[in-house]
Design brief:
- With 146 residues, this protein is mainly beta.
- It has a single domain, classed as Lipocalin.
- Helices cover 8% and strands 47% of the residues.
- The protein contains 1 helix and 8 strands.
- The chain has an 8-stranded antiparallel β-barrel with strand order 1-2-3-4-5-6-7-8.
- A hairpin with a 2-residue loop joins strand 6 and strand 7.
Length: 146
Amino acid sequence: MRFALPLLAVFVLAGCSRTPETPERDSMYGAWEGEGRQWNSGDRAMEPDGRWPMRVEVLRTRSGEPAALIDYPSFPCSGRLEYLGESTEADARPGDAVFREIITSGEEVCYSGGTVLLRFDRGLLLYAWATDEAPTVASGRLAPAE
């Protein structure tokens, strides 16, 4: 999984601190919202090239695996995340889930087919996006939706 290593590096830069008003949650399942950030050059040491609101709803399928819906309302585009499996990278944590993003609405403005890594960490959902076709990466720190 060549794409997962840059995604895990994005998590480190996204941070994991919780704010006092963040409700406690014990898994990645449920609705999440927050801000996504994008680096077109892939250089996360620079200021992001873009920021946008985003929402993710993680569901448990009948088989017990996660699936998700994703929405970028300011573009606007949305779609689903198809579960590929747990991350196998050396610095992955148990439960890190890898998905293929399929954009189903707004395909003309959002790239479909990127790889998304979701990590539940201390009541937050960390999101990282990348593709092998371009250096662009994105990340987000999402709190439980109200």
